[in-house]
Amino acid sequence: MAEQAVDRQEQEYTESRQQQPAEHKEKKPKKKISGDQWVALGFLAPSFILVLIFVYGFIGWTGWVSVSNWNTLVPDFSFAGLKNYIYLFNDYRFQADLRNTVFFTILFIGLVIVMGLGLSILIDQKLKGESLFRNIFLFPMALSFVVTGVVWQWLLNPSTGYNQFLAVFGIQPKWYTDTNILAGFEWGSIEFGLPVAIIAVVIAAVWQMTGFSLAMYLAGLRGIPDELREAARMDGASEFQIYKKVILPMLMPITVSVIIIMAHISLKIFDLIYAMTGSGANFVTDVPGVYMFETTFRGNYYANGAAIAIIMLLLVAVFIVPYLLANRRSDG
Amino acid sequence: MVMALVIAACSSDSSSDGGEDADASDGGDSGESAESGGGGEGTVEIFSWWTGAGEEDGLLALIDLFEQEHPDITVDNAAVAGGAGTNAKAVLATRMQGDDPPSTFQVHGGAELNEGWVAADKMEPLNDFYEEQGWMDKFPQDLIDMVSKDGNIYSVPVNIHRGNVVFYNKQVFEDNGLEVPTTYDEFIEVADQLQDAGVTPLALGDKEAWTATQIFENILLGELGPDDYKSLWAGDIPFDDDRVVAAAEKFKTVLGYVNEDHASRNWQDAAQLVGDGEAAMINMGDWAKGYFSNDLELETNKDFGYFAFPETDGDFMVITDTFGLPKGVENPDEVKEFLSVLGSVEGQDAFNPLKGSIPARVDADESKYDEYGKDAMKDFNESNLTPSLAHGSAAAEGFVTKANQAVNIFVTQLDVDNLINTLKNAASEL
Q1: Residue (of B233, A76, A18, A261) closest to B224 by Cα position
Q2: Is the pLDDT of residue A15 over 60?
Q3: In terms of CA atoms, which chain B residue is nearest residue A304?
Q4: CA-based nearest distance B321→chain A, Å
Q5: Of B151, B179, B120, B154, residue with least CA distance to B397
Q6: Are B353 and B368 in contact, with CB atoms under 8 Å apart?
Q7: Partner-chain residue, chosen from B89, B121, B264, that has the shortest CB–CB distance to A298
Q8: Dihedral of CA B94/B98/B102/B103: which sign?
């Protein structure tokens, strides 16, 4: 009997020992990685390591250079504190860049949203040849910003393009060579206001990117079930009210995505402006990207250039980080 | 050892690329690569910003000549487009910093070479090479000084350009009964008359700021004279000197005579205005001469004429393109072969007539150059040579960049005090 009891005890003991890990497994299933997950991790690891080095490592490296004294062809990594940043914020050109970025971003994003939404609503009216229109508006997206810049530079050149036609009527717009600042007031060493020349650049940028927001909004509109519109009509809503009260609110997430994507394009823009206008007279069309390029690679001010790059990164982060945080929250 | 193998493999590759018989390649490989160690077969990469019409023709003629003399060496023409080398310099800086230098690269003699690459310890001295080639008395001493630092010579000049030239449309001058101005006052008089006649007096295309900087440096030269002009860049004369301020005032006046759309044009677009007769004059280095004859097909002294920038007659703003030997190049001997062709009479005479420049050597064949070239060669021998700021000969790139920025702002704001102050602040980087 006693032996049996011992046997049972042992049996229970071994059972419980066998059970314990089983329980453990159920409570924390993430601790053990299955074969598939190992494979997945194995494939992810190289790109993860590469991204870690070549994206985050180099961001850190740029940050380090930006507080160094490396402002000649000979590398000099001695610590300079915030000297380069202080220099920039006192610099006429950089202040002008920040002003230009503000106005470019507001106009560019605003127009891309308005034009994209407007065009997508028109195309959504079940008109014939819809795909033709869709393609026409999407084609500019296929071009590189450099091509867009060169083409619009010709079109808007005061002495060529359709300005020769306008000149017949006595209208001679200066477009991107205009150095006027609208509604300006003194800010630091520059005049803060809308540089007229920026409008020419915005036209080119909007022409290029409207197709993107149009495609996004069109997809959004197609995703709204007809039943909703029907229901609203049954309730006696006019078409205008349907758009205002039902459809536009449902397109909000798309608007947010468009803003995020356009904002990072606009804050980092370089190629369009470099090809189209350069920094412009009195830096009316200059942006941090162009300044960064010229400072670093033409003037050999590597530390100053790195500081500009870091400021650009922070500007983009201002838009991206709240978006990422919001996404995390909605993911649970 | 691994490196040696790789190099041997490369050179044997390129030799079979060159069209060797296939059946012998197996047996011959080892022998060939052994020879190539000392003989010199491979690739020479020539880095420049010569992609425009006249300059590219010149470069290709030079490469042709080299390939005729050295059929076993492949030439890789790594030219990067962009006015006055602004893009190429960026690419070059990246490659040099990354220890991936081209075999040889275009660099302006003066501060751009000496305060840039030589100071950064990236160039091999070429004194022995000069002696070996017997060049010490073939280039003017002033010019050798421009490519030397601390007694060492670092590059081979291929050409000379002049920066203080004004080109003008002969027809326009004739129609308005105008004489070539030699002083600043005469220049203003001529400009006023042209403006009254409805012609833009001075064409400017300052989409890239160096074209405006070039006007400013010529006014500075006229105001200061060649010696004090040089002292300015040596830091011996301050930028708030009365004469510098006076030059800025004159610069401001001159800018009142330029075409309104100058900010949207590059120098070629501006030169075209002169070619078309919409503008009368343009201050440009004599590469504009190459543009006039090769691209616009205008005739020297018939369609367009030229004169020294007012008050700088007798001075010669030198811009010299040179090629050196960077440190860490795999095949220095082959690069030297190229440099020896570049510095030879034949090389210079193949290149320069097409580019519109004059040879850097004193013993080149004058008959190969057109009227303009002969005039410029004569002036070069008789004038005071002065380094150009706009082209990086007078001051280091860092200062040039800041000066260009200051000029860009000045062209719009016309604020003399501001320009002087900015230059003064930047002077610490001279």
Answers
A1: B233
A2: no
A3: B398
A4: 18
A5: B120
A6: yes
A7: B89
A8: positive
- Each residue of A208-249: pLDDT tens digit? 999 999 999 999 999 999 898 899 989 988 888 998 888 999
Which pLDDT band holds residue B17 (cuts at 50, 70, 90)? very low
Helix (H, G, I), strand (E, B), or coil: what is residue A192?
A: strand
* Model ipTM value: 0.81
Q: Which of residues 387-426 of B touch A (CB under 8 A)?
A: 397-398, 400-402, 405, 408-409, 411-413
Structure tokens at B192: 């006023």
Closest chain A residue by Cα to residue B403: A299
| Closest Cα in chain A, distance from residue B169 (Å) | 20
Structure tokens, A2: 């006693």
The dihedral through the CA atoms of B131, B134, B136, B140 has a sign that is: negative
Distance CA A123, CA A133 (A): 7
Enumerate the residues of chain A whose CB falls inside 8 A of the CB of residue B116: 73, 300
Judged by CB atoms closer than 8 Å, whether chains meet at A177 and B117 is answered as: no
Amino acid letter, residue A325: L
Nearest to B264 among A71, A157, A298 (CB): A157
Residue of B nearest to A94 (CA): B405
Within 13 Å of residue A147, how many CA atoms lie on the same side as its CB? 8
State the pLDDT confidence band at B29, using cuts at 50, 70 and 90: very low
Q: Structure tokens of A298? A: 């033409």
Q: Are strands B152-153 and B384-387 parallel, antiparallel or unpaired?
A: unpaired
d(CA B272, CA B197): 19
pLDDT, tens digit, for every residue of A159-194?
Answer: 777 888 888 888 888 888 888 898 888 888 888 999
Minimal CA separation from B113 to chain A, in Å: 11
- Mean pLDDT, chain A, whole residue set: 87
The nearest CA of chain B is from the CA of A257 a distance in Å of: 35
Check residue A29 and give its pLDDT: 53
DSSP assignments along B112-129, one per residue? IIIIIIITTT-B---HHH
CA distances from A184 to A103, A191, A193, A198 (A): 12, 6, 4, 14
Tell which B residues from 245 to 304 touch A, by Cβ distance under 8 Å. 260-264
Per-residue model confidence as pLDDT tens digits over B365-419: 899 998 899 999 999 988 989 999 999 999 988 899 999 999 999 999 999 999 9
